[in-house]
């Protein structure tokens, strides 16, 4: 429900805040006072286009903000899908600059107008006598029937299973396409796979071979350097080891005079032992190092095979070639055994469709059963609103299987006796459509949570007791959802839980649209004025009190 609406810098409104009741909200005021301006501002946070020429002050931006309580509408999935923060109390905001630039926000997160409009339509339904809105939409008509049938869990189950069925159907098409392509390319895939398999590739082989070849190509230099290092460490007249041994002997002689020198001798001895090990390792590597042209040729041949394969397949490592080999293996397997997977999925789809057809049949039976009661209740409501000669027929036809089952719904209507039934937009006036919508909404509000509905002058063309009955039905409707109505009829105005008076303020240098919530005494006066004019007498005031049950 709409808890609060804030409007800044729009038309005749400089700054305005309205707190709405959860039930029936009445909005009255003189023609031209600005009631429709309020609805125009509200439409901006529902994603409608904005024009800066409607700004109160062309130097400032227009800001419209609505606070909604949304926990009854099961919208968490919508927020998750659009990466939005879900809040039980959600704020929709629209900012329009004087240069025409517009920004939209949901809970302070920037969104595009499409997302704002999609969410807004789930929260607010503005209905005027000049707009048929969704009443002629087949999806809305089907929703009416489903709501009255009371089979939402069954419908949700069908939608979930149908979504999976569609995904599996698409997967089957893709499998068939891939299988056909794989069969056409099988020989080519097999040739490439055999070539790679024959190469018996090892993931880190290339790096090891390149290091070994580098060593072989530089064996003579390596051997010469190792011999020189060993000579300097051990065999020359000034060999490092000879020098260290002599130094160690000197420390032995001095150690008897100072215990700390013995520690130094031990450390030097450890160094000598380590250097002996180094010399032994140098000799070992030197003996293993030799020129092997045959091995170098072997490595060169192997690397040539690897490099050629990498160049052919435009990769730079054996790991990429092995990944390609695995992919080719999968494609060959798919070409050879793909028909088995296709056949398995086809059987699965047959079972899924059979289950869906069973669910669709149950949905169809529930709809068929609900239709007579819908027709009866809607016509009863219309009769109470002065349309006793109305006729309504809801036709249910079979269709191809879709997410909502296998039915199409079509509402045929006539507002006058003796006239043929036809689509509602072709045989009903704006006022009649408004009352028809009210009758339908009063019915489905008993079964499901509906967005806030706003009626803009639904009372056109009615008066007296009919107007009173329209007000009563609005009052009943507001027990299940929030209703906001703009009216000129006292019979309807008297039914509201909250009454807002819209007026023009000319007290300063500019004209402003203002709105205030009326107290009980102020409501008596306002309704009396609606009954008899600006200066109501005692009888009008008495009549107003009777309407308000005061």
UniProtKB/TrEMBL annotation:
The lineage of its organism: Bacteria, Pseudomonadati, Bacteroidota, Sphingobacteriia, Sphingobacteriales. Belongs to the RecN family. Keywords: ATP-binding, Coiled coil, DNA damage, DNA repair, Nucleotide-binding. One of its GO terms (cellular component) is bacterial nucleoid. It comes from Mucilaginibacter auburnensis. SUPFAM superfamilies: P-loop containing nucleoside triphosphate hydrolases. The keyword Coiled coil applies. This is DNA repair protein RecN. CDD domains: ABC_RecN. May be involved in recombinational repair of damaged DNA. PANTHER family: DNA REPAIR PROTEIN RECN (PTHR11059:SF0).
């Amino acid at each position: 429900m709409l808890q609060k609406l804030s409007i800044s810098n729009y038309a005749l409104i400089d700054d305005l805040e309205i707190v709405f009741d959860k039930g029936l909200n009445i909005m009255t005021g003189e023609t031209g006072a600005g009631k429709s301006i309020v609805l125009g501002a509200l439409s901006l946070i529902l994603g409608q286009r904005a024009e800066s020429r409607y700004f109160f002050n062309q130097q400032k931006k227009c800001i419209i903000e609505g606070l909604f309580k949304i926990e009854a509408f099961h919208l968490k999935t919508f927020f998750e899908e659009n990466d939005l923060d879900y809040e039980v109390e959600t704020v929709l905001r629209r900012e329009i600059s004087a240069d025409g630039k517009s920004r939209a926000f949901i809970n302070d997160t920037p969104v595009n107008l499409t997302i704002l409009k999609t969410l807004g339509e789930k929260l607010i339904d503005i209905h005027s006598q000049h707009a048929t809105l969704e009443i002629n939409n087949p999806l809305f008509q089907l929703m009416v029937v489903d709501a009255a049938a009371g089979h939402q869990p069954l419908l949700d189950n069908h939608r979930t299973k149908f979504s999976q069925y569609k995904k599996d159907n698409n997967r089957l098409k893709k499998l068939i396409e891939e299988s056909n392509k794989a069969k056409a390319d099988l020989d080519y895939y097999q040739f490439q796979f055999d070539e790679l398999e024959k190469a018996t590739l090892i993931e880190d082989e290339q790096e090891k071979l390149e290091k070994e070849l580098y060593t072989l190509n530089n064996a003579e230099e390596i051997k010469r350097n190792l011999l020189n290092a060993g000579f300097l460490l051990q065999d020359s007249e000034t060999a490092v080891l000879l020098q260290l041994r002599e130094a160690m002997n000197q420390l032995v002689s001095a150690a008897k005079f100072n215990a700390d020198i013995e520690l130094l001798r031990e450390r030097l001895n450890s160094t000598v032992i380590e250097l002996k090990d180094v010399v032994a390792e140098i000799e070992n590597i030197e003996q293993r190092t030799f020129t092997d042209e045959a091995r170098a040729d072997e490595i060169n041949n192997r690397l040539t095979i690897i490099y050629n394969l990498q160049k052919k397949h435009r990769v730079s490592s054996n790991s990429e070639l092995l990944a390609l080999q695995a992919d080719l293996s999968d494609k060959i397997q798919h070409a050879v055994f793909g028909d088995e997977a296709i056949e398995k999925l086809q059987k699965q789809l047959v079972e899924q469709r059979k289950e869906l057809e069973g669910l669709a049949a149950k949905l169809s039976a529930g709809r068929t059963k609900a239709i007579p009661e819908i027709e009866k209740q809607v016509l009863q409501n219309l009769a109470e609103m002065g349309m006793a000669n109305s006729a309504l027929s809801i036709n249910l036809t079979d269709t191809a299987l879709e997410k909502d089952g296998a039915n199409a719904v079509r509402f045929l209507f006539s507002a006058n006796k003796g006239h043929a039934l036809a689509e509602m937009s072709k045989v009903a006036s704006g006022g009649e459509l408004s009352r028809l919508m009210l009758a339908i909404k009063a019915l489905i509000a008993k079964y499901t949570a509906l967005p806030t509905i706003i009626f803009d002058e639904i009372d056109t063309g009615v008066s007296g007791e009919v107007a009173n009955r329209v007000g009563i039905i609005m009052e009943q409707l507001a027990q299940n959802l929030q209703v906001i109505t703009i009216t000129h009829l006292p019979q309807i105005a008297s039914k509201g839980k909250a009454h807002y008076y819209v007026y023009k303020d000319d007290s300063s240098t500019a004209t402003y649209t203002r709105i205030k919530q009326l107290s009980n005494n102020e409501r008596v006066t306002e309704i009396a004025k609606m009954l008899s004019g600006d200066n109501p007498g005692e009888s009008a005031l008495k009549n107003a009190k009777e309407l308000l049950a005061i």
